Amino acid sequence: MIKECIENVRKNAPLVHNxxxxxxxxxxxxxxxxxxxSPIMSDDLEDVEEITxxxxxxxxxxxxxNRNTIPSMFxxxxxxxxxxxxVLLDPVGAGASKLRTDTAVKLMKExxxxxxxxxISEIKTLALGSGSTKGVDADVADAITEASLxxxxxxxxxxxxKAGGIIAVTGATxxxxxxxxxxxxxxxxxxxxxxxxxGCQLSGMMTAFLAANPENELEAVAAAVCTMGLxxxxxxxxxxxxxxxxxxxxxxxxxxxxxxxxxLEKGARYEVR
Length: 273
Description:
UDP-N-acetylmuramoyl-L-alanine:D-glutamate ligase
């Protein structure tokens, strides 16, 4: 299924509506193009319903919330639900401020999300209704370790059941669960943390994978996570001594552009619990 999921994205070229943050919007668009999807960005209240109507998926990212985009998120999300489109929430910085936390929790109450992707601190904040994060990064105290893995898998499974969708926790070790099965994914490089927006890029790509694989949501999300992590590994292997994080960002996008089903299937490192 991992192989089929990326092949379906390239075959179907899903159009993804992104209400995302202005820090990473260009990279999100480029990653969507690289994986075989098609991006469209719209966050104006008078535009979002019409735009989301022509798309197969909606990616809502709260990284740079403001009083204009918040109502647009609710309007687009409800329209996408009405049309049966795939909807993803990226609760960037939930726990860092009251506005972010309250908005993310309210979005979950009013919109049906097929998937929610965040770091462990953001996911814990949503699961508990409150919490704290180190800005937009996970709190060190929440880090998933081998010692805490079993408990974290159990926690995330319970939250997935409660949320009624796929929960993807991304970090050094990635977890993707529908409440029954959990993919424990070990692809990636620590250096990816030196690039702004790899999580935002993954959320956009994940939405495309969901839209292209409507009957296999769990595998679609897991495949997207494996694709990003493997691209980080391939991109790093192509780095030259004088290259820095800006080049690394481009090499990751290039690796996604050149990724095929066989490469993904061979390079994906995961177990199912």
